[in-house]
Amino acid sequence: MNSGDSDMQCKSSPRYLVIQLARFGDLLQTKRLLRSLQGDGEVHLLVDDSLKSLARIVYPGVEVHGIAAHGTHGPDILARVHEELAGIMELDFHRVYNLNFSGLSFALAGMFPCSTVRGYRSHRGQRLIDSWPGQIMRWTRARALTGLNLVDVWGLYAEQPALPERVNPDAVPRGGGIGVVMAGQNARRSLPAAMLAPLVQAAAGRVGRGPIHLLGSGSERRAARELAALLPASLRGEVRDLVGRTGWQELHDTVGGLDLLVSPDTGTMHLAAHLGVPVLAFFLSSAWCHETGPYGRGHLVLQATRECAPCLETAPCPHDVACRSVFGDPSVLRHVSGHTSRELAPGCAVMTSGFDELGLTFTVVAGTDPEFGRRRAFRAMAAAYAGLPMRSDAEFLPEETWMQERDWMLPQTLRGRAHD
């Protein structure tokens, strides 16, 4: 091949931009989309400045750009953003995937031709939402009955989505002991030290070796000290308190060597799944494993299953976070330690991760999942809508309102409008 042929091939390769301005965990959950696009062309990723270095660690081969999306205010912000976007605006993109519903994201979308943008777009000042994210918004009104993992929600934006089982490696112990994430961003979805300590002790019995690494931000140092003090003397000497002491590279390297990560729904949990490290996660309050559970085979989730689950994160809890108490039940602790012969207390289900044709699934291995049948029917419908063949004998339920007239009357496709 001569240089002219090579130049022609480079010019014909599509160039993609993914705009992901959300948090640490969301960055990791963009992986299926990025992997799908990398198989077809050159991929660029726009993130908040605080996540640039992490994005470059976890996504080699992706061109990472940063913008002051969070925590920056004042009259200089417009000039700063304009300067940061200068390099991006010099490039021609075949597709721009705008993944976030926010004023800034809509404004950024308006900088590109409307026909190239997927997800959330702006045209002559009007905000437009593609049919796929619009459907997701509607389906989340019945979260207990539906549930698509966010990795798959974003991954299915791609015209040729990567197979779900090829996104993250299967989880296997790495020999470095246990990691414990002290808390998530929302306090209601985390456990206090007095309740977390017995879970850590049970997890240590399950793994049977190695140190216990405490992970988290600097604001959780007091909770880390409380947790260490509550552990039995035989484990206290194994504690390695790394809370507030790890940068992105140190966190990546530490998590990548663990046998098991114990965590609520956090970005570190998604980092472990990205690296193929087994996760034992506890999901309560508004956290729902069918939406944001660890992606890949080999993970376990303790899911709170009260009738009110999953609740709305922004609404006050009228039950004083009663779903939290089940995680201290002896039957739950026995299951965490690996002794699974006895029944599980009501209000909790142990779920194991796996895949179907649509993406990640969680199947109950202890406890009950009364909505399994309806969720299975929903996934069959969602797969059909996404154009994915699914081997399923689940039937559509006639009383469901998952689809509306406008979904088939108006000219549109899964990933955009039919006329684009």
TrEMBL record:
Q: Which residues cross the membrane?
A: none
Top-level lineage group = Bacteria
Sample GO molecular function, one term:
ADP-heptose-lipopolysaccharide heptosyltransferase activity
The entry's keywords? Glycosyltransferase, Transferase
Q: Among the entry's GO cellular component annotations, what is one?
A: cytosol
Q: Sorted alphabetically, which Pfam families does this protein's record hold?
A: Glyco_transf_9
Q: Which BP terms in the Gene Ontology apply to this protein?
A: lipopolysaccharide core region biosynthetic process
InterPro entries membership = Glyco_trans_9 (IPR002201), LPS_LOS_Heptosyltrfase (IPR051199)
Q: What is this protein called?
A: ADP-heptose:LPS heptosyltransferase
